[in-house]
Amino acid sequence: MRSRWQRFRESYFLYSFLRDPVAYVSFAILVILVIGAFGAPIIAPHNPYDPTTIDILDSELPPFWSPEGDARFLLGTDDMGRGMLSTMLYGMRISILIGVGAVALQAFLGVLVGLLSGYIKKLDTVMMRIADVQLSFSTYMIAIFIGATFQTMFGVANYEKIAAPLLILIIGLAEWPQYARTVRASVLAERKKEYVEAARIIGLSKTRIMWRHILPNTLSPVLVISTVQVANAIMSEAALSFLGLGMPQSQPSLGSLITAGFEYIFSGSWWITIFPGIVLVVLVLVINLLGDWVRDYLNPKLYKG
């Protein structure tokens, strides 16, 4: 009997993955970025959260290869004297956590609404009209409204303490209709198939049919959407930080680092914005490229012989 590892090695999934250089190079880069982000406490030369390691006199130092650079700070420092390399590693961790957390919330809400709407006709009209109303507002409009409201209610100081979970909540609530519409369409197609009719005939409950039989057959498009939505959520966090409604400078994310350095870019301190911007672009790009490969792999119309 073959082991799981042997079956995996002989699977079309691994065969397809290794035949696509864009997929495995993107995956390798993503793994390096994720390891760097979550290994920041070990890898990073400095801790940007520890004020004892920060000296304001070191602010706006250029990268080490510049004549005025300092070997202690390979990529220079920001306006607060924090090493850019360390701050970007910690900031990337926050950006990834917000992206993954927001997508998890989107997927949970969207899958739940899509299942109920697609399988229970009485709920379909109401839930889809709610989704339509939600889609009529842009993500940033909802985020700006909720973020500004929380800042007014709790004050800027208290807002900083809940910024990360609040961003997850804001971005998650703003994007769930995409999942709901996709899952609903899949459920409408699945509910007409023989296995669902057979489950009804033997007396299984609607709840059991939805969650144990229909849901597993609707997860392929959800997986494809999720890979794209993680990148979108990271970009949304960066955009909100640029508008002053994202992560505060005391808890750096890639978006807040770009924002913090934007006012210094024309004074010559280009590295404060450019380096986090490059990392953000690379992170989003490799996630999108992997999402494209996953979409192609799960596409039943493509030949898999």
UniProtKB/TrEMBL annotation:
<keyword id="KW-0812">Transmembrane</keyword>
<dbReference type="InterPro" id="IPR050366">
    <property type="entry name" value="BP-dependent_transpt_permease"/>
</dbReference>
<dbReference type="GO" id="GO:0055085">
    <property type="term" value="P:transmembrane transport"/>
</dbReference>
<dbReference type="Pfam" id="PF12911">
    <property type="entry name" value="OppC_N"/>
</dbReference>
<feature type="domain" description="ABC transmembrane type-1">
    <location>
        <begin position="92"/>
        <end position="291"/>
    </location>
</feature>
<feature type="transmembrane region" description="Helical">
    <location>
        <begin position="137"/>
        <end position="156"/>
    </location>
</feature>
<comment type="similarity">
    <text>Belongs to the binding-protein-dependent transport system permease family.</text>
</comment>
<keyword id="KW-0472">Membrane</keyword>
<feature type="transmembrane region" description="Helical">
    <location>
        <begin position="21"/>
        <end position="44"/>
    </location>
</feature>
<feature type="transmembrane region" description="Helical">
    <location>
        <begin position="94"/>
        <end position="116"/>
    </location>
</feature>
<feature type="transmembrane region" description="Helical">
    <location>
        <begin position="270"/>
        <end position="291"/>
    </location>
</feature>
<feature type="transmembrane region" description="Helical">
    <location>
        <begin position="162"/>
        <end position="179"/>
    </location>
</feature>
<keyword id="KW-1133">Transmembrane helix</keyword>
<keyword id="KW-1003">Cell membrane</keyword>
<dbReference type="InterPro" id="IPR000515">
    <property type="entry name" value="MetI-like"/>
</dbReference>
<dbReference type="GO" id="GO:0005886">
    <property type="term" value="C:plasma membrane"/>
</dbReference>
<protein>
    <submittedName>
        <fullName>ABC transporter permease subunit</fullName>
    </submittedName>
</protein>
<dbReference type="InterPro" id="IPR035906">
    <property type="entry name" value="MetI-like_sf"/>
</dbReference>
<keyword id="KW-0813">Transport</keyword>
<dbReference type="InterPro" id="IPR025966">
    <property type="entry name" value="OppC_N"/>
</dbReference>
<dbReference type="Pfam" id="PF00528">
    <property type="entry name" value="BPD_transp_1"/>
</dbReference>
<feature type="transmembrane region" description="Helical">
    <location>
        <begin position="214"/>
        <end position="235"/>
    </location>
</feature>
